[in-house]
Amino acid sequence: MAFKVKILDFNRIIRIMEFKTLENLAEAGFGGFVPVSKLKADGIHAPEDSLAEADLGRPGVYMVVRTDDSEPVFVTEGSGGHFKGRNPNVSVGELQANWVKDTCVVYIGKAGGGSSRATLRKRIGQYIRFGSGEPVGHWGGRYIWQLEDADNLLFCWRATKEWEDAEEIESELIENFKSRYDGHRPFANLKD
């Protein structure tokens, strides 16, 4: 999926992002838009998007998006790994209570920032391995693995610039999301 990416002041973009469509995210500088099934099969690559491919080697922010507008179907046993022996699954009622309508964004995450030197490739890779049942330390965002259509979700990302901090940008994105959705975080974000 190719979108024309505009390079703009990201702090301004964060304040005006709508989180409604893939086009909204692409206009904010996000690239990739790679399905979970492809990431599981081929590894963490964006073969049709050279800018997004280059960004994977850097810190940044990423989003998990669902393009299907229908009501989600939740499964009681998701594909998430049991990290440190903990069961990642929660009740269907909890999942339903966390669902946010009228947005394509189901999770906002970061790679690097603060004292972390993680890259987007490494962090998204951990997330995908966790969703493939491995006991990997990516507990945040685990709710997506209880969506029946989890393999159809898309990952998109944007590398941070030298002067930007991924942790701060992730927080600002979540705060902007909450301001647009009556105080609700994205479905799988369990903290601000």
Instruction: Write the element-wise H/E pattern from the N-terminal end onward.
Output: HHEHHEHEHEH
Q: Outline the low-pLDDT stretches.
A: 3-8
Total strand count, please? 4
Describe the global form.
Answer: globular
Mean pLDDT across the residues is 90
Helix content: 25-40%
The gyration radius over C-alpha positions equals 15 Å
Total tally of structural domains: 1
Through-space gap between termini: 30 Å
Strand content: 5-15%
- Oligomerization: single chain
Physical arrangement of strands within the biggest beta sheet? 1-4-2-3
Strand-pairing-aware structural class: alpha+beta
* Number of helices in the DSSP assignment: 7
Q: The biggest beta sheet, please? A: 4 strands, antiparallel
Structure, described:
This protein is an alpha+beta fold and 192 residues long. The protein has 7 helices and 4 strands; from the N terminus they run ααβααβαβαβα. It has one domain (25-180). It has helices spanning 10-16, 22-27, 36-42, 50-55, 92-98, 120-131, 166-180; strands at residues 31-35, 60-65, 105-111, 154-159. Helix 1 runs parallel beside helix 7. The longest helix is centred in the last third of the chain and has 15 residues, at 166-180. Residues 3-8 have low confidence and may be disordered. A 4-stranded antiparallel β-sheet has the order 1-4-2-3.
